[in-house]
Amino acid sequence: MLKQWKQRLPLFLVITAVLVFSIQNMVQAAPNIVVNNVRVSQTAEAVRFVFDVTDLPQYKVMTLENPLRLVIDMPGTVNKAAAQYNLNDPTVKGLRLAQFEPGKLRAVVDLKTVYMYKIFTLPNPNRLVVDIIKDYEHKLVDEVVPGITYTSWLRHAANGPVWAHILDIDPKAGFAVKPVLSNEMIQGLEPLLPMAQRSGAIAAVNGSYFGLDGSIIGLLKIDGEIASTPELPRTALGILPTGDLFIDQVSYEGKIELPGGKTAAIQAVNRERGENELVLYNGLYAPATGCNQHGMEYIIVNDKVTAINTGNSPIPPDGVVLSAHGTAARPLAGLKVGDTVTVRQTLGSEWDKTQHALGAGPMLIKNNSVFLTTKMEEFGPDVAGGRAPRTAIGLKDDGHILAVVVDGRQDSSIGMSLLELALFMQELGARDAMNLDGGGSSEMVIQGKIVNKPSDKRERRVGNALVIIPSRVAN
């Protein structure tokens, strides 16, 4: 029996040695830092969490976006304080403490809005301090190309964070702004990114209001041709052949001169024809008018009637189609193929000189002062109501052009009201400024990349855009 014991002794010693080594390792790996208490303080500028600890811990920080969380892992640390702290704060929901792994404490700060943070340790007594900063401003300025700068500006506002994207364009450096159509025609919609890529744009923002079929709501003029007309006087951006820009209100007047000296008023250009209306269609609309068979359509080339149809007429590249219905069709009833018909259109003496024009509105800044024309231009709550993603264009005294997109309807940015947008454009130095389409349409593209966060979480298909291109391409 003694012999058997001696034979087993080496195995016993090995097992004992392993157990001793394992116990020593467990002792060495055991947590040796204790969180005894967590103190919380709140101000308008920040929320501070102070962890009272027995020794200064090592820590690793992670930031999560969905949902918004700040995560702090502390190896070799255990918690003897409360496990949860709930706050009544516009930015911070609260703090949770839990053992993430054996010997590792995880602190999670749950957040409601975008924030900035600072974490540091202090000795004597030992503390870990976490500051959630609510009153902040973070601005990054990059030169896209010489003459164009992009600013990403995240700032704290009274009601939450606002994230703005600002292009400052110097036309004297060889750049021009011009409108472009989705799919190169009125009918149909298209995301901003392919529009910018197709036009060779350095940058682009969404443009004016549009209907679900792509029809433009408001004035649009491209390369000297009127693509769409406003229903009532509203604000527009005018671009002269010289490259000079101006912002003002504009209205449309159109008529046709018929044989015998009679005239007939044109109600609109390039949109669906309604009852008792005369609508003009040109090559910017679509291959054909798409109108129903309940009216009469007259194809005009070189001021001559070349064909007469009842609907859905092909639009000649070098002419127009006059589509009339009901009472608006009566003055045209006697027209025959070969008759002379002259189209007269005007936007006013100054606007008739423009090469391009894009209307939206309301006006935001006029002659360096806030000048909101929301009621005057009869905008409803879909445009004027509350904070939303916004897009704006502005002109500075030094000749520079501002294109601005403000994100909204998300945790990272609450958007702006029209008044807040006007004040912001004034702050940026705009002498004159106007609102463009907003909401899910608000988007900015720079060198083939989307730089903002559209509120739809994806690109919305839009009817038109404003692109920034080299001047030689624009002419």
Automatic annotation (TrEMBL):
Recorded superkingdom: Bacteria
A Pfam family hit: AMIN
Domain Phosphodiester glycosidase: 299-468
UniProt domain AMIN: residue ranges: 37-132
Protein's UniProt name: Localization of periplasmic protein complexes
Organism: Sporomusa sphaeroides DSM 2875
